[in-house]
């Protein structure tokens, strides 16, 4: 991506000498001018040559390429981030497609799983249950006197397909925060990553003498809820206008906590709402290709965890909001499956979480369906045969679950099957896109959770497979909520962002192109999403700003942080 010419913003800074060189927010390294070096006591601390940011990026990229293993590239970039924020984000922005998988999924998962063994210095805030009496003191030690626009918090129970990682959850919180800055334009100085160390049930960590977190089984029940609530109330007390982003909480807590706090603070859960929103955009693009409506589809969702439930609810809300269908009618278009098979009444309340109840199917629908499973479960193939879905979504982490029989059966019932194997990493995808393409004679509309090469069509053309990447939308949703000073992040604001993303679909111009924009366009895409969110917040009276609709675009553009160096003036009373 490209940025506008560097606008020299003047900063008055109180740091000098080694203190400014060790401040990642203010350090310029060899880009300090001669005048700045004299003013800040750096002439003897830096080599003579003054480099441009472009030259620094070229040098850093050569250093990056010298590391062959993805994990070594990850640790190099982490080291760069600890030295110089502008250089770190400028480098990433110039190699967005190449480097995002290194700082985020899938490489960050490996870094998180090895967190205690790779540990060198801490980043973010660690709030630990056995030290809960000092919770506010610890929180304020990092945040007092700062403007905080964004807090990304994780308890690390269910991380990136690798499960419970205990205190290593700080890695996903910092990575998510970095994406907010990289493609959303959130000022990194106004963002905070937090891990809530409530123990871990990962036996490998508990038995690892080098584990740096609290070596105790996870707390549950009221103790857990009280600790979470204490943290949330601290956020509401000291930073009432920030966005609070919940990340990688376990399936029993993610949706429950979102529902508990969403009416009293601007909170967001990417696993529930972000996954749901980007999937809604993808399906909206697909129905644009097929010239149909969301309300015309029959949805089968394989995997009913946080992501599956979030997708179902977001699609349902989209049907209600966009097509004007009532909620109960919209619910009937969904068929969800988990480890017990199809969610139907006879499974009993002990096997159905509260959030799933509105999607449970009546047993009477399936009384005449031959069941091959000895436990009486209705499997995916039986559901596909009966329902004839137009949309098949996978978030089960069961690699190969969409077999040839299932895909071919689906293709019998619809002209353009919409198939989304969304599980990450790629080895866990429910079906390889090329197989789904072949088994549907090139008629499938496809999107995946990981990047895949184009599919070769029977006519020899290539079909571009969209990557259904949350980062195409959640940074824009968050930035829009922050800039509008929204009291809450409403469903209608999320749908507005999803509709804007869908409107940018390349497939609307060429059906053989991707259902979603390329990730390289994520910064410009999230800019558009943020504008839509701000406009919606203002329209529904949920915003804390009074901007005219004609000024929103310029206001959002002006507010986005960009990785460029400003001009520094030494001032003992300045910023630190």
Describe the structure.
- One of its GO terms (biological process) is malate metabolic process.
- This is Malic enzyme.
- It comes from Dichomitus squalens.
- The protein is of the alpha/beta class.
- The chain folds into 3 domains: 161 residues, Malic enzyme, N-terminal domain (Rossmann fold, 3-Layer(aba) Sandwich); 198 residues, 3-Layer(aba) Sandwich (Rossmann fold); 64 residues, no CATH class.
- It has 23 helices and 16 strands.
- Helix 13 links the parallel strand 5 and strand 6.
- Helix 4 crosses helix 5 and helix 21 packs across helix 22.
- The longest helix is centred in the middle third of the chain and has 21 residues.
- It is globular and about 85 Å long.
- The N terminus is likely disordered.
**Cα-to-Cα separation, first versus last residue:** 31 Å
Per the principal axes of the C-alpha atoms, what is the gross shape? globular
Instruction: Tell me what portion of residues adopts beta-strand conformation.
Output: 5-15%
CATH level-four homologous superfamily name of the largest domain: NAD(P)-binding Rossmann-like Domain
CATH architectural group of the largest domain: 3-Layer(aba) Sandwich
**Uncertain regions: pLDDT < 50 for 5+ in a row?**
1-6
Q: Describe the biggest sheet?
A: 7 strands, mixed
């Amino acid at each position: 991506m490209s940025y506008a010419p560097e606008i020299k913003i003047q900063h008055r800074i109180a740091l000098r000498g080694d203190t400014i060189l060790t401040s990642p927010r203010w350090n310029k390294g060899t880009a300090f001018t001669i005048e700045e070096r004299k003013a800040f006591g750096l002439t003897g601390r830096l080599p003579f040559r003054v480099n441009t940011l472009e030259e620094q990026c070229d040098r850093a990229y050569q250093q990056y390429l010298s590391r062959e293993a993805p994990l070594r590239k990850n640790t190099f970039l982490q080291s760069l981030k600890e030295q110089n924020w502008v250089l770190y984000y400028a480098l990433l922005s110039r190699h967005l497609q190449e480097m995002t998988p290194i700082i985020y999924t899938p490489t960050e998962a490996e870094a998180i799983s090895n967190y205690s063994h790779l540990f060198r210095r801490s980043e973010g805030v660690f709030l630990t249950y056995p030290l809960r009496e000092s919770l506010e003191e610890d929180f304020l030690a990092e945040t007092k006197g700062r403007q905080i626009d964004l807090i990304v918090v994780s308890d690390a129970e269910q991380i990136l397909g690798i499960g419970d990682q205990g205190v290593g959850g700080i890695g996903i919180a910092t990575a998510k925060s970095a994406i907010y800055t990289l493609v959303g334009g959130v000022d990194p100085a106004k963002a905070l990553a937090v891990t809530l160390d409530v123990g871990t049930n990962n036996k490998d960590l508990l038995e690892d003498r080098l584990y740096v977190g609290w070596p105790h089984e996870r707390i549950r029940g009221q103790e857990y809820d009280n600790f979470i609530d204490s943290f949330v109330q601290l956020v509401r007390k000291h930073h009432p206008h920030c966005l609070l982003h919940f990340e990688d909480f376990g399936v029993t807590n993610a949706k429950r906590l979102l529902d508990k706090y969403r009416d009293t603070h601007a909170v967001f859960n990417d696993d529930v709402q972000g996954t749901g929103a980007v999937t809604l955009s993808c399906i909206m693009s697909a129905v644009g290709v097929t010239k149909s409506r969301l309300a015309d589809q029959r949805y089968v969702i394989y995997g009913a965890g946080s992501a599956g439930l979030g997708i179902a609810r977001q699609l349902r809300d989209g049907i209600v909001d966009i097509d004007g269908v009532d909620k109960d009618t919209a619910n009937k278009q969904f068929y969800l499956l988990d480890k017990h098979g199809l969610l139907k009444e006879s499974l009993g309340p002990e096997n159905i979480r509260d959030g799933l109840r509105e999607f449970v199917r009546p047993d009477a629908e399936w009384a005449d369906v031959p069941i091959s499973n000895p436990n009486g479960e209705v499997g995916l193939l039986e559901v596909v045969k009966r329902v004839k879905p137009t949309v098949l979504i996978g978030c089960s982490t069961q690699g190969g679950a969409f077999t040839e029989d299932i895909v071919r059966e689906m293709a019998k019932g619809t002209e353009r099957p919409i198939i989304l194997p969304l599980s990450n990493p790629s080895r866990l995808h429910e079906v390889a896109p090329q197989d789904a393409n072949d088994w549907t004679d090139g008629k499938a509309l496809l999107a995946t959770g990981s990047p895949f090469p184009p599919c070769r069509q029977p006519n020899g053309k290539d079909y571009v497979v969209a990557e259904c990447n949350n980062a195409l939308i959640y940074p824009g949703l968050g930035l829009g909520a922050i800039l509008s000073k929204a009291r809450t992040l409403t469903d209608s604001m999320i749908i507005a962002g999803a509709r804007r993303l869908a409107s940018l679909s390349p497939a609307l111009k060429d059906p053989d192109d991707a259902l979603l924009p390329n990730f390289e366009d994520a910064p410009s895409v999230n800019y558009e999403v943020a504008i839509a969110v701000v406009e919606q917040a203002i329209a529904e009276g949920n915003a804390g700003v009074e901007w005219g609709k004609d000024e929103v675009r310029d206001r959002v553009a002006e507010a986005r942080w960009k990785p460029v160096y400003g001009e520094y003036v030494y001032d003992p009373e300045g910023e630190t």
